[in-house]
Each structure stands twice: as C-alpha cells, then as structure tokens.
Design goal:
Number of domains: 1
CATH superfamily: Gcn5-related N-acetyltransferase (GNAT)
Largest sheet: 7 strands, mixed
Order of helices and strands: EHHEEEHEHEHE
Strand order of the largest sheet: 1-2-3-4-5-7-6
Shape: globular
Low-confidence stretches: none
CATH class: Alpha Beta
Number of helices: 5
Mean pLDDT: 86
Distance between the termini: 31 Å
Length: about 170
Amino acid sequence: MNIHIRGSDAQDLDALYHTEISATTLYHQSGFDMKDVTARTLQDLEQLLKETTVLVAENDEGNVMGYISYFQNGPYLHLEEVGVSTLYQRKGVGQTLLSTYIESGNKNGILGYTLTTFKNAFWSIELYKKLGFEELGYMNDDFDTDVLKEIIQRDIQAGLDMNQRVLMIKLKK
C-alpha cells in the first residue's frame, strides 16, 4: 500500500471528520470512557486547519487514511493530533505521518518535539517511543519549562484530565 502525504484544507473536512470518528473508536474499544475521549467536531477541525499545520495521508485512490496536526510552540514542534482510520491502522500510516512531522521540524531548526497522550493508550506510547520520544515526568534545565507548562495548560483548557495524560518529548540530536 502506498501512502501519500499532502497538506490539508477545508475541502478535506468531511474526510477528516470521518477519520476522527473512526480513530476515536479505538479508544472506546480499549476501555476509555466515551466522555473522556470524544471525537473532534467539524467546528473543531475547521479551527485546527486555521491554527495548525494539518497533513493528510492518502492511498493511491485518494482516500484519506489519516491525518496529523502540529504547530511550533517556542523552540518545539508540538504534535496536536494524529488520527488514523481503523481501516488503515497498523499499516504504517501513523508512523509515516509522524516521520513527516519530525522531518518538518528538522528543516525548521527547532530544539525538539512535544506531545501529550493518554497514559493508558499503550499503542500510541509504544509508537512514540519507537520514534525516540520519552515520557517526561520531571522538568530540568534541558527544557524550556514555560513552553512545556503552556502545553499542559492547553490540555487542561481543552477539558483533559492531566492525571490521565503523559507529556512526551524528543530532543533533536
């Protein structure tokens, strides 16, 4: 299966929404409460397109298989969201999207990459660790703590319970 990455725009909203609904079902099937893990609405996705870089992964037929959203936050490139339709999970789509995100940061002279995810989402933590991310359970002088605190505050404002989340970081070598 070929995976093609391209920039996303408003014409992709319907496909992004269906991908989001599909990707969210994995969390529910894994025991996450539906009130804790909700799919982004069309309005949320429109906002994401305005505020972040959104890339989609398509197959040869032009079907959207997944998407990724990220933005520069101080010296870091922060991963806002990655979602892959259940039809295409465990086929390299997520890893390809994440590799593209990391390549983008390498071109932009950033210090590293950040993300937050659910502590119990073992499949995503496993993939992030495979790509060189580490769980950050502490702050030290190697990190811009104001920027990292901003990331945590952003999740709190989105209604996420930080007791269920983990902050991960990958520093550029």
